[in-house]
Write a structure and sequence with these properties.
By secondary structure, the chain is of the alpha+beta class. The chain folds into 3 domains: 141 residues, no CATH class; 119 residues, SH3 type barrels; 114 residues, Alpha-Beta Plaits, CATH 3.30.70. Strands 4-3-2-1-5 form a 5-stranded antiparallel β-sheet. Strands 6-8-7 form a 3-stranded antiparallel β-sheet. β1 and β2 form a beta hairpin. α5 runs antiparallel to α6. The longest helix has 36 residues. The radius of gyration is 36 Å and the shape is elongated. The N and C termini lie far apart (120 Å).
Length: 398
């Protein structure tokens, strides 16, 4: 760099050199400083308008490959740290023309360290995304929360490494620090007891496969969809679109109802209320027609359809889970239609079935069609739907 400055000064008039000497710099210093600043702007422009477009175009042409497709989507995340590193190097070179010393070197050392740590984290994240995509392409069961937990642990480890490297650069005795931490670890452990409890409970929840990201769960106080399982807390998006953060120790210590564990079968249950009648043959006929209608309905599950779905290995959860006839497999297939009770104003027929789909909107549509068909069956029979009525008798003698 000194050679470049001397080369520029050779072609500068003496008046310029005398003028800049009053500022304790040379014209070569200022020219090189301006050139480096211009180079920083040029590098930014080059990356954004030429290198970025060229690489994205090449990656897009190879988008049939899963690896290139991921690189296309993650390009900005992967390319930003090295771009900043080049700009930081040029800026450091420009600053060091005028300012020297250990303090300025230490500041740039920290900046380089953070940028390299950031770049390493983005590369690790990209590798994890590649692993996830490979598993999804092979239709394997994945636990996204395990990858999220691993990423969080990597983030903490990188932060610790950065802190220890900075302390070592400052001349701190790491051996003595480790000894003092051993003594103070008890105090730190007691003060961070809740944090450690939440961390280990998060591992326990993931290990027990209680729920996954995207599952619809219900706890003692909250119901919604899991959006994130963190090191200390779990985030749940409720159905009124609020985001609730719950410490993992609270979840691990209470019941969790996981509605997403149903693979096939969302329950349809209601009572069909009919007016009193002594015509039991007609009642039996209506019950048989309703039962036959449910068995024929393409949206209602029964034993024959379960066997077919198992044989064809159909799935109803994003291609991740296959059906099983195991009792704990989350497949509901009961189909019940019976005269269940007689109450104050009606005879009640229990309708109990499961839709094939567990999607709420599809379930509502299946239930609606079932109710419409049942109303038609009643309309074509001798029976009538019960309507609560009250009779008031007036005493006309008074």
């Amino acid at each position: 760099m000194k050679y470049i400055i001397d080369f520029i000064n050779q072609y500068m008039p003496d008046s310029f050199i005398d003028l800049f000497s009053k500022l304790y710099i040379t014209p070569g210093d200022m020219v090189l400083f301006i050139l480096l600043l211009f180079l920083i702007v040029f590098v930014k422009y080059l990356f954004r308008n030429f290198i970025r477009k060229f690489l994205l175009f090449r990656l897009y042409k190879q988008r049939k490959s899963m690896l290139y497709r991921l690189m296309f989507h993650r390009y900005e995340k992967l390319a930003r740290p090295p771009r900043y590193l080049i700009s930081l190097f040029l800026f450091q070179t420009a600053i060091q023309i005028f300012i020297h010393g250990e303090k300025i070197d230490f500041i740039f050392y920290i900046l380089y360290l953070f940028l390299f740590a950031w770049w390493f984290y983005e590369v690790v994240k990209f590798i994890i995304y590649v692993s996830l995509s490979i598993k999804i392409e092979k239709d394997k069961e994945i636990h996204q929360e395990l990858f999220v937990l691993f990423l969080n642990i990597i983030k903490v480890l990188i932060a610790l490494v950065v802190v220890f490297v900075i302390l070592a650069r400052l001349g701190v005795d790491l051996t003595g620090l480790a000894t003092s931490l051993g003594i103070g670890g008890i105090v730190i452990g007691l003060s961070a007891k809740d944090t450690l409890t939440n961390f280990f409970d998060s591992i326990r929840l993931i290990g027990e496969d209680a729920f996954h990201i995207g599952d619809w769960i219900e706890t003692e106080h909250v119901e919604g969809v899991v959006t994130e399982i963190g090191l200390a807390a779990t985030c749940i998006r409720t159905f009124d679109n609020a985001l609730v953060t719950i410490p993992n120790s609270k979840l691990a210590g209470n019941y969790i109802k996981n509605w997403s564990k149903r693979r096939v079968g969302r329950r349809i249950k209601f009572n069909l209320r009919l007016q009193y009648t002594y015509d039991m043959e007609e009642v039996e006929k209506v019950i048989s027609e309703i039962r036959a209608m449910l068995n024929r309905d393409p949206g209602i599950i029964n034993d024959q359809k379960i066997k077919y779905l198992i044989k064809m290995k159909k799935t109803y959860k994003d291609g991740i889970f296959n059906l099983s006839n195991h009792p704990g497999s989350g497949v509901g297939s009961k189909l019940l239609v019976y005269l269940d009770e007689i109450d104050e104003y009606s005879m009640n027929i229990l309708i109990y079935a499961f839709s094939i789909s567990i999607n709420w909107e599809e379930w509502l549509n299946v239930k609606q069609e079932i109710i419409k068909k049942i109303v038609l069956i009643i309309d074509n029979s001798k029976l009538e739907l019960a309507i609560p009525q009250e009779e008031i008798f007036l005493n006309s003698n008074k």
